[in-house]
Amino acid sequence: MANLHHGSWSYSTSATAQDLLPPSRREKMESLSPDQKLEELSSIFQKILRGSLDSSSDDISEDEDPGFMSTKKARKAALPCLSFSPVHALLLGLETFKEEILKCIVFGNISSDSFIEIFWDIVENENKRNWGTLAVYEAEKLEAPSFLVCFQNQLFEIKYIGGCDTLVTEYPKVTDASDDFLEDEENWVPEAVQEVVKMMKRGLEIRKNLEKFPAIRNSYSYIRRWVSIRGLAQDLPDTQIFKLLLEYQKKDPKLIAAGESGDPSSSALIKQFFEHTANKIDPLLAHVDPAKYDSFRTEEWENMLLELDSLSLSKKMDVAHIVQVHLTYNGVSQMKGAQWLLTVQRSLTEWKKKLPMAIPYKVSVKMWPQRLVQRDATPSDDVYEGIFVFGIQPLDTPLTDHDLEWIRTYLNDFFTSYYVDEERGDRFVRVAINDPSDLIICTKKWPRQVLTAEKVNDSDSDSDETIKKRRKPKPNTKPNRKRGGIENVEYVEGDIENMPIKVKANRFRPATEVLARLKFDQKYNLDEWVIGYMDRVRAKILEKPAADWDRDTTAEEFIPEHRIEYFKRYDAESKEGGVARGEMILWQKNAKLDRIFGKNDPLVESV
């Protein structure tokens, strides 16, 4: 299947607008927990692997083979054995944000290459039954390969660790293994794996304690939201919040009651947090009377979260200067826009660490965790403008207006050179400092790109020599002319204003014109289309998303358009319990089929 779009995501690295308040008890009851989703994902893998064992024994009976059971046991030992194990927040059962990536480790007795092969086979098999149930967004082929997948609308990062033959065969649930078993040299458990498993076992012990004192989880949920709204996640990571709450409970065992999830136990923990920790990292609390939290109840806490969220950005950040990096995207492909935003977002996180060394002033730099937009922006705006915000605080002498202009110019040139493609003309960057604009968390959702084994392993194999011979096309300067009494407008590929406007009804349109229409006619969603083309090296037809088709002849992945064989549309329709997809070829060269320019345009019929 072609690499298409899937899902609807904010691409947030922190809390989204939906995470402002904790989910209600009803919301929790109406959906599967992350634990249950991981268990179901694991069962899909185990079911297929067990099926391999059963099918291998179908042609053998105990009557025919006296050693039937030993043979079956030997075959079972030779088959892949995988153990899915949650880590971090998923292991502890802590509440997570809507788009938070939950992590798990798969221990196995096969090589990394074999796991990758099995993984893609299972993904393909599952999507044949119900497309979109299990989607792969990212894949890294390392010594310990990892995949970012979406299952039941939950993001999971799956990391594989091989070389665990004895461990996974003796203990399908690796945390059941004793320390003596792990450390026994005869069991061949690598030291690194031993440490990981021991860490997970400690996490399970902590989880048992959390089951006795659910108020810790409840307090964690509120405090983590407060940290996110205040933009203090860099100063107080979620793991640190959890450790602080455990310390409060350990120092004063009478602080909270066993079995009590809400007030007054939660209030007692929250009070401890504000008295001993929050006031050290949040300047806004310097003038707040600690007695305010003496009778802090859940309802008051939720009101405080809403009140904090309504504050202006300048009050939330409390820094001398605010830098806004405006990213504007006006392209036709939502998926391309999402990929660009995600790339910039990740690189800005790394770049923030280097900024203090890049400019000739002593400053500290703070990055706001969410992408923001103007208050009057809507998710349906034709042109999208997202804003990343940095706070700059001088460490010695204040910055003058001249200093700030130097920083603005430097940053603007830097971002433009890295993140703007002048040839495409659909991506722009602008930097502003101390702009008083009223900003809010961006609520726009974007699709994510779906990977397949073919997309990861294959690419069009034009030789370097062929690429070197490519040249940019010269603009066509020929005047308009008439042919057969019908006006035909000559145009430069990709130029919307010069697209043909009148054609013979019976003329079979070439792929060039079809692609231009899909790109620039607003009634088409380019992300729903794929292009089938003949790969000249493999001598077979491959598919490529229409949004990824590069028409620049100097581009590394350029494919001549005369090799296009068909245009196919995938039609998405949401259903309860999954996503169904239909596919239809609407233009095909060999069959002279054209339902895009012809009278049978399916989009025209459906309007």
UniProtKB/TrEMBL annotation:
Residue stretches in coiled coil: none
Entry-linked Pfam families: MJ1316
Start-end of Basic residues biased regions: 468-483
Alphabetized InterPro entries for the sequence: MJ1316 (IPR040459)
Start and end residues of each MJ1316 RNA cyclic group end recognition domain: 508-571
Residues covered by region (Disordered): 1-37, 457-486
Basic and acidic residues bias: start-end ranges: 24-37
The protein, known as: MJ1316 RNA cyclic group end recognition domain-containing protein
Species, as recorded: Hymenoscyphus fraxineus
